Amino acid sequence: MRRGILPRLGAGAVAMALVASCGGGGGGEEESSFSLQGCEPKHFIPGHSTELCGSQMLQYMYTGLISFDEKNEPVNRMAESIESDDQKVWTIKIKKGWKFHNGEDVTVDSYIGAWNAYAYGPHAYDANYFFEKIEGYGETSPLEGDPKARSFPAWRRSTTTR
Fold it and tell me: For residue range 67-86, what is the model confidence (pLDDT) as tens digits?
């Protein structure tokens, strides 16, 4: 069933899944380091780095909702599940236990807040256009005039806990 999910997600949803990402669990006392060779991203903010260099380096710095295996098949990382009955409304469940680098929990609200910030026109994030297929985009990022909203009304947070 995983096969073919990405084409159905659409370019905007895929981009959101990849750009709205956070650092992973762990958090031991030991420090370690490693080096990567690559080009320098334009920005180190996922929603503001859409060029090749940015996406390559950010994938090493952040864990996204999904990644891809060696066969280019999607693999859930921070997402526990991504489902849709109609390919228009998506339910994304986040795995518990993920934390930001400062120790705060990564939650659904973390994603919603980041996506709203990226989609809000006056912020001028490079990835803003990734959100244009989402209902309400014109309210947050109109072609002319000031935005009527700072967030997407269609994004709902589930209050269900497990």
Answer: 999 999 999 999 999 999 99
SS3 call for 72: coil
Contact between 21 and 65 (Cβ < 8 Å): yes
pTM of the model: 0.69
Q: How many CA atoms lie within 13 A of 20 on its CB side?
A: 27
Render pLDDT for 9-38 as a digit per residue (tens, 0 to 9): 444 444 444 444 444 555 556 778 877 677
Distances in Å between the Cα of 5 and the Cα atoms of 42, 47, 78, 138, 145 are 30, 22, 16, 26, 36
Q: How far apart are CA 3 and CA 66, in angstroms?
A: 13
Q: HEC states along 12-64?
A: HHHHHHHHCCECCCCCCCCCCCCCCCCCCCCCCCHHHCCCHHHHHHHHHHCEC
The dihedral formed by the CA atoms of 39, 45, 46 and 51, expressed in degrees to the nearest 10: -40
